[in-house]
Amino acid sequence: MDLRSSVEIITEWDIVAARQLGRNEAKKAGFGTVDQARITTAISELARNIYLYAGKGKIEIERVTDNGKFGIKIIASDEGPGIPDLRKVMEDGFSTSGGLGAGMPGVKRLMDEFKVVSETGAGTTITTTKWLH
Amino acid sequence: MNARIPILKLNEVLIVSIQWELDDQTAIQFQEDLLNKMHKTAALGVVIDLTPIDFIDSFIAKVLGDVINMTGLMGAKVVITGIQPAVAITLIELGIRLSNVMTALDLENGLDKLYKELEA
Ligand SMILES: Nc1ncnc2c1ncn2[C@@H]1O[C@H](COP(=O)(O)OP(=O)(O)OP(=O)(O)O)[C@@H](O)[C@H]1O
Ligand SMILES: [Mg+2]
User: Is the CB of B96 less than 8 angstroms away from the CB of A40?
Assistant: First the structure.
């Protein structure tokens, strides 16, 4: 069993590939349909942000355990421009691309754990986990 | 790779049944195709059935919302049908409201609702 799989995000089609991989992993891990949809949506948001704002990057999907808890961790990383104001991008409706500005705050609500590390000019890494309840 | 979503015409109504996962290109193409077809056929209403769709992200939600608003601008009514529970839940958690739109459980109910609305 692969504990970690990853998809390079370079073209728009890689967004589709990443979320399909995520859905399969979520299903295999035993998540129900609602959590599968949450995980798939979260990956789609993060992958599209990489494609739109960083040009390219990577989505990694990993199975994790913690004190008998079981879950799926998504790591979205890029070496793009970074996010200058982390507080702003977590506000509903904030977008620099004419989008809904729902991606970042949405992923945080869809998942159980959410962490952003970003450095201007160096890139962004977002780590987010969903636990199997 | 990039098949178009078929748009059927039934009397004065257009019916769209989205059968597979939407990629960005297909979604945008659909938006354009639907508006063109509405213009050409002078349709009074549209039913969009999403039964097989198992997730909607912010991009697809924006395209759908735009389609709904543009259809309204062109003077037609829209009914969205077949939203799965998991899709409804994730849309709300994303913070997305599809406002100003009629919804129904399935295509049949959606058509009923649309015809009633058009008669009113
Ligand atoms: N990986 C990234 N690198 C640089 N900037 C980013 C990255 N991800 C997000 N951002 C910035 O954060 C903003 C908010 O992102 P978010 O996903 O919440 O909304 P959006 O992408 O603008 O619209 P939506 O996701 O609703 O279509 C973006 O407009 C962009 O400026
Ligand atoms: Mg986004």
Answer: no
| Helix runs in B12-77, H state only | 24-41, 58-73
Smallest CA–CA distance, residue B90 to chain A, in Å, is 6
Find the CATH number of the domain harbouring A105: 3.30.565.10
Size of interface A-B (CB pairs under 8 A): 75
Assembly ipTM: 0.90
Is residue B87 less than 8 Å (CB to CB) from chain A? yes
User: What is the domain partition of chain B in residue ranges?
Assistant: 7-119
Q: Where are the beta strands (DSSP E) in chain A?
A: 4-9, 57-66, 69-78, 113-119, 123-132
The total of other beta-carbon atoms located within 10 Å of residue A80's CB is: 19
B7-119 under CATH 3.30.750.24, yes or no: yes
CA gap A87, B4 in Å, rounded:
40
Instruction: State the residue range of the domain holding A108.
Output: 4-131
Domain count, chain A: 1
Residues, chain A, total?
A: 133
| pLDDT tens by residue, B10-49 | 999 999 999 888 888 999 999 999 999 999 999 999 999 9
Q: Reduced to 3 states, what is the DSSP secondary structure of residue B42?
A: coil
Q: Distance (Å, rounded) from C-alpha A106 to C-alpha A112?
A: 12
Give the Cα separation of B90 and A111 in Å (integer): 11
Q: What is the pTM of this model?
A: 0.95
